[in-house]
């Protein structure tokens, strides 16, 4: 279940283990009233599970293409690997970024970094919300760490593009703005969902990710 397997060189796929759907660290209803149980169940057990299954299929086909030296097939499989691999990476982070005991504001080093790079927590919250609202169609809003410059940045990614694989930023906090993440509860009003999700952000998890990527 380690997401590290997802970023292993593709040449290592010959001896790979199949990816599996990670368990949630809380019940499907635990994030109510902010995200209801029906959304969480469908999102985790159907949507995320589909990315995992399709990733395993794509990797199996890629392994066969490698064995045959079929470069055309290898290239043609790249979109499926990116989409389903990204879906698995993103959701694995997302579930841990949420908690029934979440909300409020971060503390310690993360809070100091947010103040340094955004001026205040309120400014950061406004920027990440705006980036997430502004995603056209489906995608993600992210707080990431730019290791080269030692700074926090907000960014948006389309579809299931993984943050680190497409921008180089290390993912700390991801907000899923695909309609399947909120439509059953918030209909097409994405800003209402984004307002609610701040009540369940797991700042301990985000802080741990920040501490780990600075090492």
Flag low-confidence runs: 1-14
Net shape: globular
Give the topology string: H per helix, E per strand: HHHHHEEHEHHH
CATH superfamily of the largest domain: Iron/manganese superoxide dismutase, C-terminal domain
Question: How do the strands of the widest beta sheet line up side by side?
Answer: 2-1-3
How many beta-strand runs?
Answer: 3
CATH topology of the largest domain: minor pseudopilin epsh fold
Gross CATH architecture of the largest domain: 3-Layer(bab) Sandwich
- Span from first to last CA? 23 Å
pLDDT averaged over residues: 93
β-strand amount: 5-15%
Which CATH class of the largest domain is shown?
Alpha Beta
Alpha carbon gyration radius? 18 Å
Q: What count of structural domains?
A: 2
Structural class: mainly alpha
Biggest sheet layout: 3 strands, antiparallel
User: Portion of residues in helices?
Assistant: 40-55%
Number of helices: 9
Q: Could you list some keywords that capture this structure?
A:
mainly alpha; disordered N terminus; 2 domains; minor pseudopilin epsh fold
């Amino acid at each position: 279940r380690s997401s590290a397997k997802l970023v292993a060189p593709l040449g290592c796929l010959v001896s790979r283990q199949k990816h599996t759907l990670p368990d949630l660290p809380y019940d499907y209803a635990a994030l109510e009233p902010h995200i209801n149980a029906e959304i969480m169940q469908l999102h985790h057990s159907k949507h995320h599970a589909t990315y995992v299954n399709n990733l395993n299929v794509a990797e199996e086909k890629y392994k066969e293409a490698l064995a045959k030296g079929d470069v055309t097939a290898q290239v043609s499989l790249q979109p499926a690997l990116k989409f389903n691999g990204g879906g698995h990476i993103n959701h694995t982070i997302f579930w841990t970024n949420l908690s029934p005991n979440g909300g409020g504001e971060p503390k310690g080093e993360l809070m100091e970094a947010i103040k340094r790079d955004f001026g205040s927590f309120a400014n950061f919250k406004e920027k990440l919300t705006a980036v997430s609202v502004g995603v056209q169609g489906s995608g993600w809003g992210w707080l990431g760490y730019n290791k080269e410059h030692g700074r926090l940045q907000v960014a948006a990614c389309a579809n299931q593009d993984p943050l680190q694989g497409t921008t180089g930023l290390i993912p700390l906090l991801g907000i899923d703005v695909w309609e399947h993440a909120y439509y059953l509860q918030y209909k097409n009003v994405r800003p209402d969902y984004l307002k609610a999700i701040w009540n369940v952000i797991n700042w301990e998890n985000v802080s741990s990710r920040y501490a780990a990527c600075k090492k």
